[in-house]
Write a structure and sequence with these properties.
Layout lengths: L8 E7 L6 H9 L6 E7 L6 H11 L3 E8 L2 H11 L4 E4 L5 E2 L3 H11 L5 E3 L2 E4 L3 E4 L2 E7 L10 E3 H7 L8 H11 L4 E3 L5 E4 L6 H8 L10 E6 L1
């Protein structure tokens, strides 16, 4: 049996009731031109067929892991993935989004060219409205260009472990970004747009907040009971 290469990237997908799109997200990782990755899918207590769809893909590729936990929100799900990560850098993919094939290759080039940087972010293609609710004032809209898009984060694992993601159900990525800035973490924006951000999903957190001004009590990733597949 051939030994798999050590991953540069631990890709973490937090997901909740996304059976309709989870396979598309996973396939976008499988199609990467940079193949030194592992994929950790954190199912946050889905009640649909999400885990059923993912399990055959786990058997298909040993780099893919599935963790099922009870619902605590996206921040807690990201933190579960960080805790299990083995790559030098952790990065993310929302379950209704996609990577373009060169996404990880571009990031690996940035890592080589900027060895002193611990946190890369940015490089988004937006499908749908580029305006999202301001987390401090949901009645106002701001451009995604002004936001920290968690799916684009590429963070040295030691930094992600030290800072941790707060157990928030919305804007956990913005919270992490602000704490990283306050801690003086070395950051760099990636200019190449290779992360396809889907703003058309009616059940996305941003769209629910925009429509109602509040979030549901459960969403997008679950915990007291965990299992790995």
């Amino acid at each position: 049996m051939s030994q798999r290469p050590e991953p540069i990237f631990s890709v973490i997908i937090p997901t909740y009731n996304r059976a309709w799109c989870i396979e598309r997200a996973i396939e976008s990782v499988l199609q990467q031109t940079e193949q030194r990755w592992e994929l950790i899918i954190v199912d946050d207590g889905s009640s649909d067929r999400t885990a059923e769809i993912v399990r055959p893909l786990v058997l298909r590729d040993e780099r893919i892991r599935l963790v099922v936990q009870s619902n605590r929100g996206t921040g807690a799900a990201r933190q579960t993935g960080v805790r299990l990560a083995e790559g030098e850098f952790v990065t993310f993919l929302d379950s209704d989004d996609q990577y373009l094939p060169e996404h990880l290759e571009v990031r690996s080039r940035y890592i080589v060219e900027h060895p002193a940087v611990d946190f890369f972010h940015g490089g988004v293609i937006v499908d749908g409205s580029p305006m999202v609710p301001d987390r401090h004032n949901p009645a106002q809209r701001i451009s995604i260009e002004q936001c920290a898009v968690g799916g684009t984060f590429v963070i040295r694992r030691s930094i992600a472990t030290a800072l941790g993601f707060a157990p928030l159900r919305f804007a956990d990525d913005a919270d992490f970004f602000e704490r990283a800035m306050a801690a003086g973490i070395r950051m760099l924006r990636v200019r190449e747009a290779t992360y396809r951000y889907n703003r058309t999903s009616p059940d996305s957190l941003c769209n629910q907040l925009a429509q109602s001004g509040s979030l549901p009590t459960t969403h997008n990733v679950h915990t007291s009971h965990e299992s790995a597949a």
